[in-house]
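Sequence only, no structure available. Ideas?
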Amino acid sequence: MKMDVDVVLSASGIELTEAENELYDRQIRLWGLESQKRLRTAKILISGLNGLGAEITKNIILSGVNSVKLHDDQIVTEADFCSQFLAARDSLGSNRAEASLERARALNPMVDISADTQLLKDRDSDFFKQFDVVVINGENNNELQRIDTICRKIGVKFFATDVWGMFGFHFASLQKHCYVEDVFKYKVVSKPNEKVKCETVATPVQRDVEYPEYAVWLNFDINAQKYQRKLKRDGPGIILLRVLQTFRSTYNRDPSYKTRQTDIELLQKIRDEVMPNSALSDEAFELVFAQISPAVAVVGGVVAQEVIKVVTKMEAPHRNLFIFNPETCMGYVETLGCN
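Reply:
I predicted one. Tokens follow.
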């Protein structure tokens, strides 16, 4: 087992420069030199440079990856200034990815950062195979499923994520993922006839775990009787996610503060169709407009942390649906489609 662990963690042939060792000193102390070497080779795609995309970008760049491709075909709007800190105020009307480049590069000059403005729906496997991890936000379910299918065929890790107002989620489609985690046991160190003394011993253990495709969420029956007890315990966040994604797919946009009352009524209608008599209150729809900084910071931080886990192969990534509930200000993980 020890040999297997060494193989999983090895980043042979990769050496950090003196400047990199100095810059990433605190991170190396936190997760080790081999993990930092793995990060140094990682190539990440982040699509959707809204507030959430900016937060994920910041955290990934600061971790010290090899390269980050910022993708977006949308322009900077006033709504972006609620939480998009990489685009300057004078960039209104310009492409969001290009507007984010200057500040993104200033975060860490050692990371290769570039922008792409082409339509995501026109991208095929030749584009996605450039990356180790693909993070997509702001897309509808059909596009998310299309990209996940491509990534699974070419062996690229896939994350779908989004934030609406104060509500957010991410889904991890990692295929077969190998990682190492420490298993802690207590060892008696005292001598016979002495007062018992113990110390904690950590043993690294390799895990191989299957992460199902994004389609398991699309096919998940939130009305299933066996799920209702868990729904009552965790709250209606998963219902809200289904409602918001249905709204986007139906109207090809997200709820807008400019048409607030009309959109709330549309959301209520979708809710009643998706799950009649559900616990999802009308008040929940008051919290889903634009992208609010605190929620973006939480969800973006979680997504970046999960990407780092995947790249370093240290600790278990969330398996597989993370939901941030604005009513409780807490996140929780739903395990879907796993044995």
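Residues 26 and 107 are 16 Å apart (CA to CA).
Hope that gets you unstuck.
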